[in-house]
Design brief:
The protein is of the alpha+beta class. It has one domain. The protein is 51% helix and 18% strand. It is built from 6 helices and 5 strands. β4 and β5 form a beta hairpin.
Length: 155
């Protein structure tokens, strides 16, 4: 009886290990794929335009060297934004993450008196770091944005 119980436990452990290995998704971050997949989603407004990487770096006031950037932003009347940055190391990524968080906070204050109906988007902005990548998403549905982003970057 002890042998049977022991074999059952070992079998259960093997099944658990196999199933947990199958559910693990690997990060596959391609900036262009992310922008192409998300920039046309309905949670971004219609006033949504591509912004050159160097302009994004300047908009954010980033002084880190070797920054790759790509994104879209709304006209001055809307807060919508999709920005992605990639740097050479995690320390620089942490710096840009902080800059992005600070920029969102500054924009909240600016929009309160300018366009209060856009403040919700900024208060629920998605700002995350994935290794050396930083993603900023300001849109009407941050939960849908996160779900769509995960579907693109995790394979």
């Amino acid at each position: 009886m002890f042998r049977i119980a022991r074999k059952m436990i070992i079998l259960c452990l093997i099944v658990i290990l196999v199933l947990s290995g199958c559910s693990t998704k690997k990060l596959d971050f391609d900036m262009q794929n992310v922008v192409e997949a998300l920039s046309t989603k309905s949670y971004f407004g219609t006033d949504f335009y591509e912004v050159e990487g160097s302009a994004l770096v300047q908009m954010y006031g980033i002084e880190v060297e070797n920054v790759d950037a790509i994104g879209f932003a709304g006209s001055g009347g809307v807060a919508d934004e999709l920005s992605i940055f990639n740097v050479e190391n995690e320390a620089d990524a942490d710096t840009i993450l902080q800059i992005a968080q600070d920029r969102i906070a500054e924009r909240i204050e600016a929009y309160k008196s300018y366009k209060p109906d856009e403040v919700f988007k900024l208060e629920h902005a998605y700002v995350e770091k994935f290794g050396t990548f930083i993603v900023v998403g300001v849109c009407s549905d941050a939960d849908a944005f996160k779900k769509d982003l995960d579907a693109v970057i995790y394979k």
